[in-house]
Predict the 3D structure of the following.
Amino acid sequence: RSKSCLTLLECMASGLPGISNDVGDVGWMLAGCGRLAETGNPKALGEEMSLLARDASCRKVLGEKARQRILELFTPEKTVDSLEQAYRYAVGKKI
């Protein structure tokens, strides 16, 4: 379990669809470009893996969406801006 998974972002940046349990920010991170399985249900996770293993066109579409999502939301420039805003908020400074 993790709040935000770097491995997932690396897969998405490589144009691969992500598969994960729905924990933390993972559902938001994947948002239409991967598959989510019920947390704590290994059978559901296996079913999602099996679905992608059998369906090349689904893998391709989700992988393309994943790469686009990275470019829209998770570039270093965008994540630095978000992190800076969070730090400023945490120390009580107005942006």
About this structure: The two ends are 33 Å apart (CA to CA). The beta strands are 18-21, 34-37. The chain has a mean pLDDT of 90. The chain has five helices and two strands.
